[in-house]
Design brief:
heterodimer; A: about 375 residues; alpha+beta; Translation Initiation Factor IF3; Dihydrodipicolinate Reductase, domain 2; 4-stranded mixed beta sheet; 8 helices; 18 strands; globular; B: about 1300 residues; 8-stranded mixed beta sheet; 6-stranded antiparallel barrel; 33 strands; about 45% helix; extended
């Protein structure tokens, strides 16, 4: 053997995606023990199994071992392969759950990835496809991942609990990433959004828009919220509605917020007006947190900075989310990289909360899967 | 005499000088320059053809762009590592001599034997690491990968040798370092012309191999076994000004060319199992890229390892501090070569060993020789390691105390529980007293605080401890000769002449220790010299100073005092005091980190009760505890007590810290309160809010106690200064709601995995103040001063308004500033008046400058706009990135910088590696370079690697698929089994049995994953030497994968057993209906070329099927199907472990043998199949029937095509038939003679004819001439005649005229 495979060991199913993604990128095997070992229903859940299946699909030669009860997972990564794929996501989590990891992996495949994901497009737990499309894609573009085949298309919407949505994600392949220096978030120049409704009255979307605008109009006049009412086959299997808002700044930063209605048969019915208002407030919260990247994409930007050339990258973030903090720790254990973390108090009043300046030197990652001719 | 000998001056007729002169001359005449020519003759330079002009323009542009290199970000560190100079060449060419001469040239030191790399300071900005490369191909490959500059020695009297070309080819594959040829043995040429010719020939051959114009240096000959000084000096100059282009592999991977190696294995383990895996530390300059802790490395010749610990040490061969002199000071000309046993200062992680200078050498040289020898012998003869010696050594703490065995120490250690530190302290005190006696003698007594005292004492203690240890070692070694050695060893360093030749054994580190320690013994134990006493005094004083400083400052300072860098400073101080002979204690030097950690740990445990220990163990920063546990065997009890003291200290520190914290908190609380008051005022009287404020403050306080730093929150440990931490404390508001990471991660081990960051306490966005808090995030809000459009406009106006102002008078503008001055400094009345105009002027000047700058910027922008190309933009971007990279971590200290960046190239690092095979240590040979090559992510994994490969044109054989071969790829050398393939037009990878002769082909093997685009070379074997060229193939990595796509052709055959019209039933191709089902629809063919298709399987004979063809088959036809079968590649990856071989046999590594080799060795002949043998082919004569054309048809044919009934020619009749005449020998002779005669005759006739013809020709020519002459004569005669006739006529006419006149008369 080439070397003692120095595998990393973790406990618990939390941050499973991070671990598998980082393991795939760094080539270090990972072992996760005691997955819900003490619960009544131990082992991996169906959505996690589906995620592992997805990882298996996009890679070539990875070894996955799961014990009888599903409480222990050993993953020895292969090489990222890509190509044209399809995947049926488990409806217990939304497509965003899977897509977030794919966004991390897609630029480093052997063949450009073009994948059709089926399942729940919008739910209350994970970042929805709309928000990812509006915030994560521009973020990737900053790193030089751009071009013809870079798109995220929502062909069908599916709401929980039954899903039925469909999303096409395509991403070109890059050998190296560019370093970024985004320390100036700029000023918000416009707010865009999508109010969607499926299998309910199309009027609901309009009601959401009105209520959301009522708050946002106090800050900026340039607001446009699209109403997206899907019908027939493209409306999925369950009824629902929701709103996703994105604020764009002068320097190309996108801050997103979203809210979806309660799934059918769970919880009380939500008034569209209330949902619109709350969503607008969530956006304001996000703006208050600020930074050059919104809170859901913090880990993505940090990962891409890590995987850059051996140059300094900087990014200004809002307060670090627990997910990001754990991600930073994982980055350290997988890539031996530490970020320089500086808190930046907002110098001027009325600009939201404190910001964190993250600085790192890339590890000089290069896409080992890509073929040269 | 001399004047006669002097050459006469020759005017130059060609060359640059002559050209210049000619030009000047022409200029004088007024018809000079080219430009003038353009002016003089504009027509000649006019546009003749637009097309042609376009073409030339294109061409020039093409040439221009060809010259561009892709701009890269310059990542070279500000203080680069020494340039690695590799000296290569065949044996006996003068490599070692050259190195020695170079070292002597640069450092004025003479090395006798060179082992391993030698680092020297060659200039103000440059250091060199010179290393010799033997002729072992392993060494050549390894060193070619790390070389910055190659000095290629060539024996001119012999010419090029295979080694030279091999090395050049290795270099070409692994990135081409700078190569400089050096011709030696030029004195063996007696004939000057011969010499010149050889030089030229060699130069041109060298140029074809490297690049035209490559530098080739000539060393004319040896004088007393050395090269001429001047030539070496010139060579040195060339080396020290040379520039290097970054090589891809080297700049993207960290690597270390090891200077020094030390075995750190626990001696107990070695005793129990001498073959146990070892732990070693390796020292050297880090080169290439940044190295991270815990990263994967490869040691060529040994294997893959994980770095278990890295630390950086003070530079043992540092560049001189900036000074304005042109040349180096003598004392800055450092040399460092621990493997060869030279080098001033040796740094370990926690100790500094300083070479004793000349001044400290003992005066008597008589004594020196013998013990020196004995020392060497004893060192050579000892086979036990230091640790073993340690175990059985005895320490005498004081001159006349009872020696302490290691058992005693250990016993003490084990007996005493950790908590009982007082006892330790006591012993410490006793010892301290002993130290202080000296000081008191010197009158350097102090009245410091107890704490400070302790600290200094600790240091002393530590040093003594170390001494004690070392003493123990040497004691055991040579119990009798202690005293002698002390004096002798000091000499040894200074003496680098002949005696040193056989001096240090290869395994240098242990005896380094020994030397140093014994050297110190001489000082510390004997206490005879006053100098030493003073030295101690000085040191004490310096400590006092520092401690008093630190007292006044924050307590963190005190901790930082222990940092190695600080140590270095102290060291320098001491050096200034000419107290070179000091060694710092081994154990008194915990890292800053650990100090901080303990303090924080304690405080946290007090505050929260939550333990951070786990986190800290995981942490990057090595804890002192861990280290200690590593060294338990070496440590002694007093050291323990030192720890104790430290601990106590840290407690104090922590207390102070705590105090600070509290103060800060109070302050912040106040601020916070104020803020809230303000908000309360604006918002009106909201009662609950006040309460909230308080609550928030409390929460804030709590948080302050629990999470002092965000960085700590994330990574667990803090390496930054305490001040910074405090700052962070202040900055951190109640914003971060994340509680302790450990607890959280434990609690949430099985929690929901979601990246969303839900808002825990949503703010009430209906309130105005809350809304206002983000008002400025929008374009509608207020802008920053430098971006606000209105303000910018105003600024511009001001600037231009100023312009007008300047003309009218600027006094008006200057005033407000002056007023401000007044207000600021009221006391200085006299100055004020002088200042006022000055300030005015300055302001004016500033404004003018400002305006100028602005104008210039505008101009630049305008000017550059048209000129900037894509290339320029790219370059500028890279430049920017470079600057950013340099600036980002510039102001941080190395400790924390290392954590973010990793260890920078240029640092001197100590790398600890575990699980190294014992053979590496046992068979260590310093002549073979040790290289640590860092591996990127997943470069340590294995998979299938696809290459583009070409057999080297000088390699005599072709390569066979499945023959094991040794690749050199990346850092590695390994043996593997490649498969050669070629890509068909449809992208299929078809297996080849042999590599093509003069073509590229693909190759796949199972081995380490290496980035695409990396070059490689292949050799059949690394053992021994062959006269032939050894490099078998070269190429590049194309692709990495976990599966392979190589296929080979497989033909399945079958036979028809039933034939209908075009349908046949075929059997024998498959074995079961299932197989048939798989191949339904596949194309098949008969040998005769009838194509068909598989239709459906039959039930009856297993594996038979129905097939249709384009024509009816015959029963004798063979049907076959062409299929492609995937090849499997044996997963064989065998690293070449040449460094593990015993010394002297390192070039004899053999791996797996090829089948051919095995057969040859065992004498097994290949049994050939009967079918493959070549036999004479016997073909039956094929009989064809006559062509029969029916009569009816014949009739219809045109006459031309009708078969004609030719009558057979009759045999010649008897009279026509003539018998052959057979001559008798005699007759033969006659006829031969006759033919000869006739030949002669005919020749004669021919000749005569020729002669006759010639004569005739001559005759004719002659006749022609005569005739011409005759004709001429006739003509002339005629002319004469006619003239006479004419004259007569004239006369007659005249006379007739006359006559008439006469008649008239």
């Amino acid at each position: 053997m080439a070397s003692q495979q120095h595998s990393l060991s973790y406990v618990g199913c939390n941050f499973l995606r991070q671990r598998l993604v980082l393991s795939t990128l760094s080539g270090r095997p990972v072992k996760i023990r005691k997955i819900r070992a003490k619960e009544e229903n131990p082992g991996l859940r169906d959505f996690e199994a589906s995620f592992i299946r997805l990882i298996d699909k996009v890679t070539n030669g990875s070894r996955i071992e799961i014990n009888q009860t599903g409480t222990t997972l050993y993953y020895q990564p292969g090489l990222l392969y890509g190509g044209v794929l399809e995947h049926d996501c488990s409806p217990s989590r939304s497509i965003g759950y899977y897509l977030e990891s794919l966004l991390c992996l897609a630029p480093f495949m052997k063949h450009p990835l073009r994948i059709v994901l089926r399942g729940v497009t919008n739910d209350q737990v994970d970042p929805s496809v709309d928000v990812l499309k509006a915030t994560a894609l521009p973020l990737l573009k900053k790193f030089g991942i751009d071009g013809e085949g870079f798109e995220l298309k929502i062909t069908r919407r599916g709401m929980p609990p039954k899903g039925g949505g469909e999303v096409t994600f395509a991403c070109p392949v890059r050998k190296v990433l560019q370093p970024i220096q985004s320390t100036d978030p700029g000023k918000i120049k416009r707010i865009r959004g999508t109010a969607y409704s499926v299998r309910v009255s199309p009027q609901i979307a309009n009601r959401i828009v009105d209520s959301a605008r009522s708050i946002l109009n106090k800050f900026i006049p340039d607001i446009y919220i699209y109403t997206d009412h899907m019908k027939g086959t493209s409306s999925g299997k369950s009824p629902g509605f929701g709103l996703s808002l994105v604020a764009e700044t002068t320097s190309g930063t996108f801050l997103g917020a979203e809210l979806a209605s309660n799934p059918q048969g769970q919880g009380t019915a939500v008034l569209p007006e209330e949902l619109g208002l709350n969503c607008a407030k969530l956006l304001l919260e996000e703006i208050y947190r600020g930074g050059c990247v919104d809170s859901t994409n913090q880990s993505l930007v940090l990962l891409l900075m890590t995987l850059g050339q051996q140059d300094v990258s900087k990014v200004l973030l809002g307060p670090l989310s627990p997910y990001t903090i754990e991600f930073l720790r994982h980055l350290r254990s997988f890539f031996q990289i530490m970020f320089k973390i500086e808190t930046k108090p907002s110098y001027e009043e009325l600009q939201g909360g404190e910001k964190v300046l993250m600085t790192c030197v890339g590890i000089g990652f290069s896409n080992l899967s890509k073929t040269i001719k | 005499m001399e004047e006669k000998d002097r050459k006469k001056h020759h005017k130059k007729h060609s060359g640059p000088k002559a050209d210049k002169k000619r030009k000047r001359h022409l200029n004088d005449l007024g018809l000079g320059d080219d430009e003038d020519a353009r002016k003089r003759n504009p027509k000649a330079f006019a546009v003749q053809s637009a097309v042609r002009m376009a073409r030339t323009f294109h061409r020039t542009q093409d040439l221009k762009t060809k010259k561009h290199h892709i701009p890269v970000v310059d990542r070279t560190p500000l203080e680069p590592p020494p340039v690695a100079v590799v000296v290569v060449g065949p044996p006996k060419v003068g490599k070692s001599t050259l190195i020695k001469c170079l070292i002597r040239n640069f450092t004025r030191q003479k090395l006798i034997e060179i082992r391993g790399p030698v680092t020297i300071v060659s200039g103000k900005r440059r250091r060199l690491t010179i290393i010799e490369c033997g002729c072992d191909i392993n060494t050549m490959i390894d060193l070619a990968k790390v070389a910055d500059l190659v000095l290629m020695l060539i024996d001119a009297s012999f010419g090029f040798e295979m080694e030279t070309f091999e090395f050049l080819n290795i270099c070409q594959v692994h990135g081409f370092p700078k190569i400089m040829g050096v011709l030696t043995h030029l004195d063996s040429f007696k004939n000057n012309k011969q010499l010149k010719k050889t030089k030229k020939r060699l130069k041109h051959r060298f140029w074809t191999e490297v690049y035209p114009g490559a530098k080739l240096f000539y060393l004319s000959g040896m004088v007393y076994g050395e090269y001429p000084k001047q030539e070496i000096h010139n060579l040195g100059r060339f080396i020290s000004v040379m520039k290097f282009r970054p090589l891809t592999w080297q700049t993207s991977h960290p690597y270390v060319l090891a200077d020094r190696m030390e075995d750190l294995t626990n001696p107990e383990h070695v005793r129990v199992n001498p073959k146990c895996d070892r732990k070693v530390s390796i020292y050297g300059y880090l080169r290439g890229a940044c190295l991270k802790n815990q990263s994967q490395i490869h040691m060529p010749g040994v294997g893959d390892f994980t770095v278990c610990d890295v630390s950086f040490l003070p530079d043992p061969c540092a560049l001189p501090e900036q000074q304005k002199k042109r040349s180096l000071n003598e004392k800055d000309k450092l040399i460092y070569a621990p493997l060869s046993g030279v080098g001033g200062v040796v740094y370990d992680k926690d100790a500094v060993y300083i070479d004793l200078g000349r001044s400290h050498a003992p005066q008597d040289e008589k004594e020196e020789v013998r013990p020196n020898h004995e020392l060497v012998q004893s060192l050579i003869s000892t086979h036990s390691t230091i640790d073993v010696k340690m175990a059985s050594s005895k320490v005498s703490l004081f001159m006349d105390s009872k020696p302490l065995g290691s058992e005693d120490v250990e016993n003490q250690e084990f007996v005493m529980p950790k908590e009982e530190k007082q006892i330790d302290l006591k012993t410490g005190r006793v010892r301290r007293k002993a130290v202080f006696e000296e000081e008191n003698d010197n009158g350097a007594s102090d009245e410091e605080e107890g704490q400070d005292e302790e600290m200094s004492e600790d240091e002393m203690d530590g040093s003594e401890d170390g001494d004690g240890d070392d003493e123990g070692e040497s004691d055991k070694e040579m119990p009798g000769q202690e005293l002698d050695l002390r004096s002798a060893k000091r000499m040894k360093r200074e003496e680098t002449t002949e005696e040193a030749a056989g001096e240090l054994p290869a395994f240098a580190d242990s005896d380094d220790d020994l030397e140093m320690s014994s050297g110190e013994e001489g000082e510390t134990d004997l206490d005879e010299s006053k100098e030493e006493a003073e030295d101690h005094g000085d040191k004490e004083e310096s400590n006092e100073k520092e401690s008093s400083d630190s007292d006044s400052e924050s307590s963190s300072r005190q901790i930082s005092k222990f940092a190695p860098c600080e140590l270095g400073r102290e060291d320098k101080e001491r050096r200034e005091n000419h107290n070179l002979d000091h060694r710092l204690g081994k154990k008194v030097v915990p890292t800053t980190d650990s100090g901080n950690c303990t303090a924080e740990e304690a405080s946290e445990s007090e505050a929260e009760g939550s333990s951070l220990e786990e986190e800290e163990e995981e942490g990057l920063n090595d804890d002192s505890e861990a280290e200690e546990s590593d060294r338990k065997g070496i440590q002694s009890a007093p050291e323990k007590n030192v720890d104790g003291v430290e601990w106590a200290e840290s407690k104090v520190v922590e207390d102070e810290d705590g105090g600070d914290d509290i103060e800060n908190l109070l302050k912040e609380e106040e601020e916070y309160g104020e803020e809230n008051d303000f908000s309360a005022d604006t918002a009106g009287a909201l009662k609950w809010k006040e309460d909230l404020t308080q609550k928030a403050a409390e929460a804030f306080l709590r948080q302050q106690q629990s999470a002092p730093n965000l960085r700590k929150l994330v990574y667990g440990t803090v390496a930054e200064d305490a001040d910074e931490e405090d700052d962070a404390d202040e900055e951190l508001g109640g914003l971060f709601h994340v509680s302790r990471p450990d607890k959280e991660s434990k609690q949430k081990a099985n929690a929901l995995d979601c990246s969303k960051f839900p808002v825990e306490t949503p703010q009430d966005w209906d309130l105005d103040e809350v809304m206002n808090s983000i008002r400025d995030c929008f374009v509608t809000g207020k802008w920053e001063a430098d971006k606000d459009a209105a303000k910018l406009l105003k600024d511009d106006e001001e600037l231009y308004g100023d312009f007008e102002d300047l003309e009218t008078g600027a006094v008006h503008k200057g005033k407000p500033a002056a007023e401000g001055d007044e207000a600021g400094s009221e006391g200085e009345k006299e100055d004020k008046e002088g200042k006022e105009p000055k300030a005015e002027e300055e302001e004016e000047k500033n404004k003018r400058m400002d305006k100028k700058r602005k104008l210039k910027e505008m101009f630049d922008a305008e000017y550059d706009e048209g000129d900037a190309t894509y290339f320029d933009d790219l370059k500028e971007e890279m430049q920017k990135q470079t600057q950013l990279n340099r600036a980002e971590f510039e102001d941080q200290d190395d400790e924390s910088r290392v954590q973010y960046e990793g260890f920078r190239p240029g640092m001197y690092v100590r790398i600890e590696i575990e699980n190294i095979p014992c053979e590496f240590v046992l068979n260590f040979d310093p002549h073979y370079p040790i290289i640590l090559g860092g591996l990127g992510n997943s470069e340590g994994n294995v998979g299938y690697v696809q290459l583009r490969l070409k057999k080297h044109r000088w390699y005599k054989k072709i390569l066979k698929t499945r023959d094991p071969i040794i690749f050199s790829l990346g850092w590695r050398r390994f043996q593997t089994i490649p498969m050669y393939y070629i890509e068909d037009h449809n992208g299929r990878h078809r297996l080849l049995k042999y590599s093509p002769q003069h073509m590229h082909c693909g190759a796949t093997f199972w081995g380490p994953i290496t980035p695409q685009g990396t070059g490689f070379l292949a050799i059949q074997s690394v053992s021994g030497t062959t006269p032939d060229f050894r490099i078998a193939a070269t190429g590049v990595v194309l692709d990495l994968d976990k599966s392979i796509t190589v296929v080979k052709k497989l033909k399945l055959t079958g036979f028809p057993f039933k034939i209908y019209k075009n349908t046949s039933f075929i059997k024998g191709m498959f074995n079961s209906p299932l197989e048939v089902a798989k191949f339904e629809g596949a194309a098949i063919r008969t040998v005769s070329g009838i194509r068909g298709q598989i239709k459906k399987g039959l039930r009856k004979p297993e594996g038979a099927f129905r097939a249709t063809f384009e024509d009816k088959l015959l029963m004798s036809d063979i049907v076959f199907m062409r299929t492609w079968y995937p090849v499997s590649i044996p997963a064989f990856y065998n690293p070449v472990t040449s460094l593990l071989k015993p010394a002297g046999e390192k070039d004899t590594w053999t791996g797996m043998k090829t089948t051919g080799q095995l057969r040859h060795e065992l004498g097994i002949r290949l049994k050939q199949k009967k079918d493959s043998l070549y036999k004479p082919i016997v073909r039956e004569k094929k009989h064809f029937n006559k062509l029969h054309i029916p009569k009816a048809l014949q009739k219809a044919l045109p006459f031309k095509n009708k078969p004609k009934n030719h009558e057979k020619k009759a045999k010649p009749t008897k009279d026509q038939w003539r018998p052959a005449v057979i001559r008798e020998p005699h007759e033969k002779k006659i006829s031969a003679l006759l033919t000869a005669l006739s030949t002669v005759h005919s020749y004669k006739i021919k000749k005569a004819k020729l002669n006759h013809r010639q004569h005739l020709k001559d005759y004719l020519r002659k006749k022609h001439k005569e005739e011409e002459e005759k004709f001429k004569k006739q003509k002339e005669a005629k002319k004469k005649l006619f003239r006479i006739l004419g004259q007569k006529e004239k006369k007659r006419q005249k006379s007739s005229l006359k006559g008439s006149r006469e008649r008239e008369k």
